[in-house]
Amino acid sequence: MGTQSHQRRYPKYSVSLIIPKSDTVTVAKIKAAIEAAYQEGESKLKGNGRSVPPLSAIKNPLRDGDAERPDDPAYANAYFVNANSSTAPGIIDADRNEISDWQTVEEQHPESGDGNRSP
Q: Is the pTM higher than 0.90?
């Protein structure tokens, strides 16, 4: 089975989280989470006798929109994080109640996506 066939058969879900550079509190929290994840992974790898590259040598999930997407105004003066999955994401409302019907979200918030959802 080729990769292209696999991609057509199984949906892929993705999101780009755009964080204004002025939101220093959120940016600091994301950087701290990246550092914590690195340290956890580092201790596991070192425990197995493997070498670990420095954090600065690893592709950082927090990326600079001005540097990587200079022609897209949505990314101006912002950082971004991309995430993707083959598993459909969960949806919650403002009160953190789970919403299980994509159609409900699309009907109430047509601006939220392109309408190409898989159940």
A: no
